[in-house]
Structure formats: C-alpha cells, structure tokens
C-alpha cells in the first residue's frame, strides 16, 4: 500500500555533473508511473533499483529535450528486454511525431505497443483510473504546450465495525452498502454509514508541476494535495529571467503551495548557475516552511494515515 | 602536440550502472574529434573535463541507439551555449533523417550549422584533412551500414641539421627543399635530404572499429596503426552470438590486431552479461599481448616519438 516518489533528476536544461534532468517515478501500491524522462534515466533507475519493466505508464509534461531525451533509450531497452505489456504514454499532441519517428527508426522488433494518449484539456480531467489511483492532467503555462499531473489514491472501501454487525444484525447486503459508503435504510429507519463503518485511511495525493510560470488557476487545481512538486528554475533575484522563459522562481512556487494549502512542497529543476540548493529551499521557506529541495535519487514516502 | 584518446563509454546496447555507451574523444594537437555519441555523453565529458564547445567534428559509425542517443542533448547544449562554429558530422546516409528530425523539432534558435557529410565508400577514403591530421573512413561489417575511422597525424616537415647548413653553405631555397623532403641538386651533385635533415617525430595513428564482425580486408585497412580500438562485445565462448549479431569476440579482435601489426589493441563495447573485463583482456592477450580492456574515462596518450 505504498505511495512513494523517487526523484531521478533535478537539473534544468543545461547539463550538470551532479544532477540529471527531469524524471520521477511515483509508485502507488506497487505500480510504477514514470513522470518525464530526461537523458540518462535508465542509469538513474538502475541506481534507484527501479525495475524498468515494471513501468506501468509514462506521463510527459512537454517535449523539451531535458524532459524527453531519455525516452528513446528507455523504450529500446524495454524492447531488448522483450516487454510485451502495452505502454501508455500520456503526452501533448506534439509528442506524436517524436513517437512516429522513433518507431520508424528504432521500432523494429519491439514486441509491445506504445499507445500515445494525447492531452488537450483546458482544465483538470481524469486521464487514467486504476484500482488504486486516479490521475488527472491539467495545462501549465510554459513556452510550448505543457501539462501537469495529479495522482490521487482512490477512496478506500469503508471498513465495517465488527461490533456494529452484531449490534444491528447487519445482513450481507447491508454490509456491502456500508462498504460502498451508503447508509443502511430499514423501513423508515436510517443508520448512517459512518456509524457502522469507518474509512481505513486517508487517500494520498501528489501533483507534478514542471515547467510553468505561475498562473491564477494552478493553486486551485492542486488544492490540498499531500505533496506538490513545483519547479523553481530560478532564485527570486532572477524573476525577470523566469518570466522571460516561462519558468517560476522560489517565491512563486512557495506562493502556489501556500494558496493551494498543500501539506508539503518539493522543489527542483534548478538552473545550472546554482550548485547548492540551500538558497532555493531557504527562499521558499520564508513563505512556505514545509519545503524540501529535491535531490537526485531522493525518495519521498507518503505513509498511510489512518482516517480514524 | 598531443595525440590523446579519452574513452567515455564502453558498454554495448544494454545499459549498465558502471558503464556508459559508446563515445570517445580523440584530441590531436588540441583539436577534439568526437567518435560516436551514446546517451549521457555530456555528463561524461563534464567528468573528463572535455569542453563541449571545443568539439571540432563528429564521427558516427552507425545510427544504432547506443551510438547516437546522446547527440540530441549534446547539440541542444551547444545551441544553448551559443555555438556559432559549424559542426561537421561524418556519418552514414541513414543519419540524414535523424538530423532533419532533430532540426525540425529542436533546431529553433541554433546559431551554428550542422553539416552532415554522408559516408558511402567501399574502401578507405580520406574524409577530412586538417593541418595536423587526416581522417579516413572505411566500411565495417555490421547489421546496418557502419563505418570505421582512421586518424593519422600528418607527416611533419623535416628539421634541417644546423651543422649541415654551414658544411654545405645551404641557400634558403635549398633549406626549403630539405624541409619538404626533397634532395638538394647542385649541377651533377645530389645531396640526399636525409643527410641534411631529419624527421622530428613519427606520425601517430588511431583506428576505431565498432561495431563489426571480422572480415578479410580489415587488418589491411588498419595495418600498422599505433592504437587500434576494436569492439569485443563477446567472450570467445559466445562466438555464435557474435556471428548472429554481426559483432566480434575477443579472439577475433586480437587476430585482427595481430594480422594488422598494430602496436596496441584497446577493446570495449562489452556485453552487459560480464561485469569484469579481466576475462576479455586475458583472452585477447593469448593472441595479442599488448591488449588493454578500455574502461570509462580511461585516457590513452600516444607520446611523441622522435624519428631519429
């Protein structure tokens, strides 16, 4: 029942020795979702001991090189390792020619289907539902079409209190109703479901926002998530550079976290000008104390919190 | 006056934690030639302290992913660093669509020209001549069109012996003739140039052969080079795999070095099955003792050898 983020790269476009470019893996109940795919991701997955073949789906925010140049190698390796399970790639329409080119040049002998699901929404929309998680995509504000992603653990079934089964003599049909979150109705009597049962845990949530300049709707779209990853390409003093390049500063990311009322803020996508991330973190914390500067191969585990 | 090879990657197609994929930089008299360009090459160049902007030309053996997937990122970085110097890429014709695709998708704002020089020769041909080096390309024997490269330092001008200038009272015209390697002729008298002058050093040479199965002409084409890099994807026991995939074994590479009469053999492009390279090296040395198993970030310096 894990909900664990592994950060594989934290650099922005210009390469650095100490950092890889954008790529993350979110593992929910053992299923792995790859978010962006910077160059060298396979090496980072090997180091983080994340099995490449276990990647369930891929989510690409946009097609800038520092977010996708690791994909051809990864897909080739999946092919060499004889993957047969289809791979969904949720990505903007601009990804289609990249995939077409890859398949025409490097697709020979691939035994698995790569299905591009194009993202075109103007506001958050569900793009994937599994047994354990639902994923929404929403537009960001970057130079080219770019999308953010919100991963939400699904509401768990209610647990039925054993003592109430005896007390009310609940039938199997009534127990099933409580599990679904429905009240039990007997003639005129209504027994509220939350007297008979309880939610075993609070669903966890993670939002990924890179690359983006700030915009009014974003805090609303990621409101209340447990963990928000928001890019901070620039320190506050370079706000003009950030605006010019449709990126965010530390304070802009922190303001988004604050307005959205998230529990934790994780920052990254650092400019190559700055080697130490202390200043990024310190600037964010002036507005939003629960900020962590992401580092390559850092793992953020969101533990299960009992709802009772 | 250096002639130095830096090996950036020694793995074959399947990624490994300890090794990058094929890429090398040969530096001749301070000019840097990039040979193949596996994924992650920028990181390796940073670690090896090879300035990306100093790359003079690129030589691509073939377009398999493990030899080219680092190129889009490298070209993008050169663009961000505002390179203006044109970049020649010597590569098979199959590279043309890759370059076209890269330029159409990621070429916006590049301030330098990328010139693809297509390789189509059936036997060694000179493809580049600079003041210090001449480069030849020749076909290899792989699954797809693939080329090897031979870098030869150019013959130096003769040095004129000072004592002979006085002894014969050589004129400026006669001195120039000796420098060019011409005899001095005075009426019926011929004074041989090598009595009057001497070659200051022996030109150095390096040949790159990856990926290839053995074939009869290859030892002749790389005959006598100071340093031969020859792939050894497989140990001898996997000769059937090597044949199937148009690769070479240790013994095949060593036999080529022996027949070609090269001074040193450098091997690499190791299969991911084998973690230690001792066995590759040991097998080669049974036939060709001057074998070294290349390691990532290894540097091989060919020192200047005086001809006298």
Task: Report on the architecture of this protein.
Chain A is of the alpha/beta class. Chain A has 11 helices and 18 strands. In chain A, strands 6-5-4-3-2-1-18 form a 7-stranded mixed β-sheet. In chain A, helix 10 runs parallel beside helix 11. The relative contact order of chain A is 0.14. The model of chain A has no long low-confidence stretch (mean pLDDT 95). Chains A and B meet through helix 1, helix 3 and helix 4 of A and helix 1, helix 3 and helix 4 of B.
Q: What's the SSE pattern of chain A? A: EEEHEHHEHEEEEEHHEEHEEHEHHEHEE
- End-to-end Cα distance of chain A, whole Å, is 17 Å
In order across it, which strands form the biggest sheet of chain A?
6-5-4-3-2-1-18
Quaternary status of these chains? homodimer
Structural class of chain A: alpha/beta
Keywords:
seven-stranded mixed sheet, 11 helices
